[in-house]
Amino acid sequence: MKKTLKLQIIIICLCSTSLLAGPKLEISEQRFDFGAIPANSIVYKHFWFKSTGTDTLIINNIKTGCACALMETVKDTLPPGDSVKVGIEWKIGNKIFSVGRYPYIFTNASSDPYRIYLTGEAYKTLDKLQPVSLVPYKFELSKYKDDSVDEMKFTLTNHSDRSVQFKIVTELPKECEIKLPESIEPGSKGVGTVKVKKEYLDSEFTTSVTIVSVDNPDTKITIPIRRKIFSK
Questions:
Q1: By residue range, what is the domain housing residue 92?
Q2: Are residues 145 and 70 in the same domain?
Q3: 35: alpha, beta or left? (left if phi > 0; alpha if psi -120 to 50)
Q4: Distance (Å, rounded) from C-alpha 80 to C-alpha 3?
Q5: Residue that is last in its domain, among 123, 149, 183
Q6: What is the pLDDT of residues 174-228, one digit of tens each?
Q7: CB neighbour list of residue 228: distance below 8 Å, 6 or more residues apart
Q8: How far apart are CA 140 and CA 144, in angstroms?
Q9: Strands of 132-135's sheet, edge to edge?
């Protein structure tokens, strides 16, 4: 009787272990809200994919469901414990108000794909946004011959009845230095700066940054940033 019970326990343990074994994917964030986004812009977000199983994880495919969004990985095979940074480029078109994109990640870890939920609210302009507006709402840092806009100021206006302070919640663009204003009092303005780093002055790039109110996560703005060099 005791031998039979012991054998049953061993079988249960082996079955449990086999269920836990194999490849597994862990995604740093499965939901991200870009907040307010100006229409006709490109926004970016990076995620970390980590192999947390006991066997090698293979990323077979990533489908965004639209040519407007591109999501690629620099490597598709991850041994246990390995990670890779995966970025998404999402072109926001003319659509106003609620926008969404929901990429599927197909792997050898599951017959069902993993999913990421990306959302936002697109507006024609952000200069009349409530409770905080932004001017300019797109950062165009262009260069034309000897004329070059390498640095610019931006203004956040607090239309609410309480102080607002922002922080950056996306990866800092490697091409720029961004300084946000300090706490903005009710009815007041705060001025920040964005500056192209010296090593990127002769490079074209598009990127974005998402900022959020420290005290109110619903107050969130994504700002497109572009460096365009005109040769003529």
A1: 25-123
A2: no
A3: left
A4: 36
A5: 123
A6: 999 999 999 999 999 999 999 999 999 999 999 999 999 999 999 999 999 999 9
A7: 140, 141, 142, 143, 204
A8: 12
A9: 132-135, 151-158, 189-196, 176-179
